[in-house]
Specification:
about 140 residues; alpha/beta; Rossmann fold; five-stranded parallel beta sheet; about 45% helix; globular
Length: about 140
Amino acid sequence: MLSRILVPMDDSEPAGRALEYALENHPDAEITVLHVVGVPSMMMGDAVSLALEDDLETAADERARPVFERAREIAAEHDRDIETAVGIGHPARNVVERADDYDTVIIGSHGKHTDGTTRRILVGNVAETVVRRAPVAVTVVR
């Protein structure tokens, strides 16, 4: 039985479906939603703008707030509570580094940044990287 589940989440539909899957299929598990901010881009826009903030943690929390609000709404529809965590930097690296503290990772098949070929070449597919590198089982939800 799984007792601790990590669900990486951005504002994409697959991420929401991954959370729903975790909630529906693991009713007794503690679920932590992770949102990573400061994602690298070609022009380093998000990462640079975050680094220029006076209070990095507060800025990261502010950027994660809409994702966590959506996650809490999804959890409320299932009469469940969730934990939240904010990561800073590269999403796949954050998930893999945290995965040791969980029984499994449940991740959406793709996130909001996978439409551009350039983006995929620069950063890579987060779900694919997590599947290859995570030290625990990973479920990918479409």
